[in-house]
Amino acid sequence: MWHRNKVERITDVNWKQYKLVLLKDKTAKNIHHIIWRCNSKNYNTDDKQNKITVPEISHDNLNRFFWNLQTPHEQLKFMIEQRWWKEVLNKRVLEELYQILSLPREEFYKEWLVRWEQKWKPLF
Which of 2, 37, 73, 97 has its CA at 20 to 30 Å from residue 13's CA atom? Predict the structure, then answer.
């Protein structure tokens, strides 16, 4: 099976299937877009402030965990609602976080990041 131009290798050992994974260099670095490039209609994703250099292993793990959540507000909402944090956070803190998530885009993000036509749209 092809995925991102790499062959997925599966082998059988004692009638169990195992997926072979490429070992990565611990010192390798990648550029991570905080807001993913597919959101370029709404955000200035190619701005240098939206890019950070991170270890390649961390970058891959983060992208696997948030594979379909491409902005910080979507990731925050996921962490609150999917019981990752909900069980341990105080009720008042949860209310504050939901209030933050109810802000318009312009107030949630830095002003240079949000495109002009999207500024006053709600996050969700």
Answer: 2
Distance CA 34, CA 74 (A): 12
Amino acid sitting at position 108: F
Rounded distance, CA 31 to CA 65, Å?
17
Q: How far apart are CA 2 and CA 21, in angstroms?
A: 14
Q: Is 71 left (phi over 0), alpha (psi -120 to 50) or beta?
A: beta
| Residue 100 resides in a domain | yes
Reported residue count of the chain is 124
Residue 7 lies in a domain: no
Q: Are 43 and 114 in contact (CB under 8 A)?
A: yes
Number of separate domains in the chain? 1
pLDDT in tens, 35-85: 999 989 999 999 999 999 999 999 999 999 998 999 999 999 999 988 888
Q: What is the pTM of this model?
A: 0.75
